[in-house]
DNA sequence: CTGGAAAGCGCC
DNA sequence: AAAGGGCGCTTTCCAG
């Protein structure tokens, strides 16, 4: 049996191969229909359907085909991945919309499958689609359904505490400024800093509307006046308050007492997942207050959280892709990579200082992102020519990386796209742009995307391996979160050790790169402890 | 009133 | 020259 599915306005419309259409409003009926594992379900946004089906014990066939994700794998940055756009692009038909058009839309989904499959085959991405992205669909649905427990009382306590602190800071800031103004308004703040207090604007960057007041600028200004530092402190706390402390409780599902984030599988240009409502991929971790918020993400009594994150996965991928002998050597010896770069760039003499390591870390990341000397100079607060020297020294010590960067950009210009380890493709038409700025941006993207995107490939495969292993071993543990290089599980407290061992083994064994993959695993009562 | 741009910032 | 890659969310501010 073949079923076309179109999810319109959150309502699943099912089309049987006999052509009969119907709106499945009763979830039980839908689930039983989909319980037929022989069914081949074709449609868009199948994850929503899987969440529904899983609730009633149903499955979505053996070989689901999601048209949106197929389109995304073919060309992630294209504007429309919806059925209407795909029908236009691949079938040359204009699809009707609305409640009466569901049958036509489901039919289009069925017709699109063979077309999209041929396209995927043509760019050798069929395996990525069929063996990685489609199996991930069910895993993400399960993760969303499980959700994560949030200690709302803890957040409420933080809220009162922060409210008091913020109120005090507002008074202090207004007193220091000599007037009351909206601290959260960059234009008003700009007036206070540069017109009223007449702070020096030397070296202050400009945005589109005038002088910037962002964190870098305020840090510089802090040397002239006590106000900027206070603003920074206020902003940090206000950010935590409005984005997390006061918002998260409202996103807790009253039936489960948990937050059920939505993972998006066809959004990020590199192949990464994204997360929303709430975004659990940007929960604070740095700083004392950040960790207090993270600690509000917990496991229920008797259970605990296990977190496993890849160590330096992007730099390891750079080592693999470039084959640079020094970089490969460093990882094979399991060295501290930032210390190694510090030694290479600054010489082994004088020993490793905290400053040197911090600088080396900035350079290591800068290379991945295609950083120029100006940015490095700003970040390290050093003269521009010194930054130029460091970058030159880096490339002379890691010549394989230099060659890789050059070859990657050249190949991208020739082909018009770059690819990841699993043939995820990203087209970069801007490489041929007249506008130098746009072209350089595309060149940085050409270098970064294979690295970031390959990391995304690997962790997606890892998710599948770990999920299968946990089921095989009958471990009472469920994956609940993915944060790009980290997986989080909830499990029975006494199972933490075997879960950790299984997770580590599956993650480290996900692929044989020319350097080993390393995973750090921790467990705890809450996410801060487990990190 | 809503929508969107801009600025800013949390994470990897 | 305006900058390192990728996201999502908040607030402000202004236009419709």
- Number of DSSP-assigned strands: 17
The span between the termini is 46 Å
Could you say which structural class the secondary elements and strand pairing correspond to? alpha+beta
Q: Taking strands numbered 1, 2, ... along the chain, how are they ordered across the largest sheet?
A: 3-2-1-4-5
- Main sheet, how many strands, which sense, barrel? 5 strands, mixed
Residue windows where pLDDT falls under 50 for at least 5 positions: none
Total DSSP helices:
21
3D architecture notes:
- With 531 residues, the chain is α+β, with helices and mostly antiparallel strands.
- Helix content is 53%, strand content 13%.
- The protein is built from 21 helices and 17 strands.
- The protein has helices at 27-34, 46-55, 67-74, 83-91, 102-122, 126-146, 152-177, 186-196, 215-221, 227-245, 288-294, 313-322, 325-332, 337-346, 354-369, 373-380, 384-397, 399-415, 436-472, 496-508, 527-530, and strands spanning 2-8, 11-16, 21-23, 40-43, 65-66, 148-150, 252-253, 258-259, 262-264, 274-276, 297-298, 303-310, 417-419, 425-427, 477-482, 486-492, 519-524.
- The strands form 5 sheets. A 5-stranded mixed beta sheet has the order 3-2-1-4-5. A 4-stranded antiparallel beta sheet has the order 7-8-6-11, with no helix packed on it.
- Helix 12 packs across helix 13 (325-332) and helix 17 (384-397) packs across helix 18 (399-415).
- The structure holds a DNA duplex (12 and 16 nucleotides).
């Amino acid at each position: 049996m073949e079923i076309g599915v179109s999810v319109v306005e959150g309502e699943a419309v099912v089309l049987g191969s006999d052509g009969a259409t119907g709106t499945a409003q009763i979830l039980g009926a839908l689930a039983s229909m989909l319980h037929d594992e022989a069914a081949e379900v074709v449609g868009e946004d199948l994850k929503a359907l899987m969440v529904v089906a899983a609730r009633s014990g149903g499955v979505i066939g053996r070989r689901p085909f999601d048209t949106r994700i197929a389109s995304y794998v073919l060309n992630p940055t294209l504007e429309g991945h919806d059925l209407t756009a795909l029908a236009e692009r691949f079938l040359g038909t204009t699809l009707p919309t609305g409640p009466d058009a569901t049958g036509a839309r489901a039919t289009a989904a069925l017709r699109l499958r063979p077309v999209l499959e041929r396209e995927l085959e043509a760019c050798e991405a069929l395996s990525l689609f069929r063996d990685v992205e489609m199996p991930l669909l069910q895993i993400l649905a399960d993760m969303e359904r499980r959700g994560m427990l949030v200690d709302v009382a803890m957040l409420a306590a933080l809220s009162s505490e922060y409210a008091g602190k913020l109120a005090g800071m507002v008074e202090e800031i207004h007193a220091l400024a000599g007037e009351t103004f909206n601290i959260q308004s960059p234009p008003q703040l700009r007036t206070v800093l540069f017109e009223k207090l007449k702070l020096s604007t030397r070296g202050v960057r400009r945005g589109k509307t005038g002088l910037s007041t962002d964190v870098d600028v305020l840090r510089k200004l802090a040397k002239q006046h006590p106000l900027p530092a206070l603003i920074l402190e206020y902003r940090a706390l206000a950010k935590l308050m409005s984005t997390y402390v006061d918002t998260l409780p409202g996103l807790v599902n009253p039936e489960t007492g948990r937050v059920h984030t939505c993972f998006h599988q066809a959004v990020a240009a590199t192949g990464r997942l994204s997360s929303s409502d709430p975004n659990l991929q940007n929960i604070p971790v740095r700083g004392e207050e950040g960790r207090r918020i993270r600690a509000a993400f917990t496991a229920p009594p008797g259970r605990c959280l296990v977190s496993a994150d890849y160590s330096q996965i992007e730099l390891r991928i750079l080592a693999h892709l470039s084959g640079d002998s020094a970089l490969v050597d460093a990882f094979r010896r399991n060295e501290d990579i930032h210390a190694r770069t510090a030694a290479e760039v600054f010489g082994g003499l004088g020993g490793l200082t905290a400053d040197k390591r911090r600088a080396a870390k900035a350079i290591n990341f800068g290379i991945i992102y295609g950083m120029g000397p100006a940015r490095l100079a700003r970040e390290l607060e050093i003269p521009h020519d010194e930054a130029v020297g460091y970058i030159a020294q880096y490339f002379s010590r890691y010549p394989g990386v230099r060659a890789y960067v050059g070859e990657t950009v050249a190949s991208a210009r020739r082909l018009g796209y770059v690819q990841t380890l699993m043939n995820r493709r990203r087209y970069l038409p801007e490489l041929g742009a007249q506008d130098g700025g746009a072209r350089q941006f595309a060149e940085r993207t050409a270098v970064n995307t294979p690295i970031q995107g390959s990391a995304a490939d690997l962790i997606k495969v890892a998710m599948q391996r770990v999920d299968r292993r946990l089921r095989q071993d009958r471990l009472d543990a469920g994956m609940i979160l993915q944060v790009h290089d980290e997986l989080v599980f909830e499990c029975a407290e006494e199972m933490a050790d075997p879960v950790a061992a299984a997770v580590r083994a599956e993650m480290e064994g996900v692929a044989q790169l020319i350097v080993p993959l390393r995973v750090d695993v921790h467990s705890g009562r809450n996410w801060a402890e487990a990190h």
